[in-house]
Amino acid sequence: MTSTTGKQNRSPVARVSRMLDSLESLLHRLCLRSNIFTRKKWQYFCLLSGQLSFLCAFMVLVAAGFLPPMKPTWSAERVHEHYFSHKEGVRASVPLLLLSGGLYLPFAALLSKHLRQIPGIDPILADLQLAAGAAGIFSIMVPASFLGLITFRDYGPELTLLISDQFWLNFFLPWPTFLIQAWTVSWAAFADTSENPVFSKTVGLINFVVPFFYLSLTGVHVQHDGPYAWSGALTFWVAAVAFGVQIGADTNCLFRRIRAMPEDGGIEHVEEVHCIARP
């Protein structure tokens, strides 16, 4: 029996198991001694994630030569020439665009968390904001597949134009998810009557007004030229600036709240549980 047990202990499976146990023990001790994985630092990471999302989106515009954006009136030959003269930049833009979509989700989750801390708020507002944010990332990720397809092989000018149109229309048309996301924050801010509101009324007003600028995106599928085309002043430039103002206001508000949190997050935990338990 002893001989059999000794052989089992010397078996490759046993050695691997002991190595994994040692690794687990080491990692556990390191985590206990570290103050990196705190709730406060995680929320800072979520806030930073949102900013990195917008940085990646901006880098896409630069790398692919979309500043200023290509016009819907361009001929198939000119569109084809643009993409293949920026071939490496377009290819680099695909993972950047995918990353931009993925990094937006932690930011939306952070917004949802702080919405839940508003006393007496209907929980559906926080859920709806998070659902809209999760749906919104696909309006960034789906166009990335069309952008990747354009330079995957040379389809010729006509097919390249078709895929390019798919990219731009899929990028602009799913704007209602961002409207819903902004208006849930706005409603929650106006509904918060506490002495120390989670979101200021100014932030609520910004989140209410900005989505009206998104309405200009509604007609990009019928406009080839002018301010309502996807390259137009209202559709591209004004909407982009308005979105930046909205995100900047939300980010500033969240940063102030996270900075004021205790390191252990204990007070925050009590307040959040109390808020959720309230009918």
What does the model show?
Helix content is 74%, strand content 0%. It is an all-alpha fold. The chain has one domain. The longest helix has 29 residues. The radius of gyration is 25 Å and the shape is flat.
Explain the layout of strands and helices:
Elements: H1 2-9, H2 12-33, H3 39-63, H4 76-85, H5 87-115, H6 123-136, H7 138-150, H8 157-172, H9 176-191, H10 201-209, H11 211-214, H12 233-260, H13 266-277
Helix pairs in contact: 3-5, 3-12, 4-8, 5-6, 5-7, 6-9, 7-8, 9-10
Keywords: Membrane, Transmembrane, Transmembrane helix
Transmembrane segments: 42-67, 92-112, 124-152, 172-191, 203-222, 228-249
Report the portion of residues in β strands.
Answer: under 5%
The N- to C-terminal Cα distance equals 63 Å
- Give a count of the beta strands, DSSP E runs of length 2 or more: 0
Work out the helicity level. Answer: over 70%
Keywords: Membrane, Transmembrane, Transmembrane helix
Transmembrane segments: 42-67, 92-112, 124-152, 172-191, 203-222, 228-249
